[in-house]
């Protein structure tokens, strides 16, 4: 069936589709000042990460927060404590692809933390009173909206109209020789 065939017709279908995508990796530095002057850093974690996505101009803002917990020693390594601080952030992720013909009134945005905020380095500041934390994080965002899709329609139909099409997966014994022990359980 040739596209140039005059019997073929074109239809426009309005559907929801991914109309914009973006990704952003970032490294951020935070300074936390514990109640005691730290002697050494024993551990640093990021917990309780929460975020949401909102449309903002030509991109998507990821608005969120997380808690930084720093386990440190003080008093010449004779005592330990945990310093806690909640960090709020706004990360603007540009859309590297945008369908220009989408209906902006139907936009829905989502964000996925492809790399949760993670402490990659914790050091004592130069004055010895604070801890400098380096955090990495990455987000992938999508914008779903209504858009038009063009399809070609053959008004004469197809030869298999009204027939049950089995796609060759019927009772022809193709699966009899499979070893069931080799199949994965989580499919």
In short:
Residues 171-187 have a biased composition (Acidic residues). With 187 residues, this protein is mostly beta strands.
Explain this structure to me?
Keywords: Capsid protein, Virion. Residues 161-187 are annotated as: Disordered. This is Outer spore coat protein CotE. Residues 171-187 have a biased composition (Acidic residues). It holds the Pfam family CotE. The protein is mostly beta strands and 187 residues long. The protein has one domain (9-156). Helices cover 0% and strands 65% of the residues. It has no helices and 7 strands. Strands 5-1-7-6 form a 4-stranded antiparallel β-sheet, with no helix packed on it. A 3-stranded antiparallel β-sheet has the order 2-3-4, with no helix packed on it. Strand 3 and strand 4 (79-94) form a beta hairpin. The two termini are 38 Å apart.
């Amino acid at each position: 069936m040739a596209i140039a065939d005059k019997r073929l017709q074109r239809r426009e279908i309005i559907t929801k589709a991914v109309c914009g995508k973006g990704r952003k990796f970032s490294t951020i530095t935070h300074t936390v000042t514990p109640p005691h002057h730290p002697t050494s850093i024993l551990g640093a974690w990021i917990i309780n990460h929460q975020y949401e996505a909102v449309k903002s101009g030509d991109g998507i803002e990821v608005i969120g927060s997380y808690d930084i917990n720093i386990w440190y020693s003080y008093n010449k390594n004779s005592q330990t404590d945990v310093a806690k601080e909640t960090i709020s952030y706004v990360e603007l992720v540009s859309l590297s692809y945008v369908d220009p013909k989408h209906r902006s009134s139907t936009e829905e945005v989502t964000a996925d933390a492809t790399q949760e905020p993670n402490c990659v380095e914790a050091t004592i500041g130069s004055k010895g009173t604070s801890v400098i934390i380096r955090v990495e994080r990455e987000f992938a965002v999508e914008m779903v909206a209504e858009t038009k899709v063009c399809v070609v329609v053959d008004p004469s139909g197809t030869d298999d109209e009204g027939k049950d099409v089995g796609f060759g997966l019927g009772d022809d014994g193709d699966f009899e020789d499979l070893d069931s022990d080799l199949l994965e359980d989580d499919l």
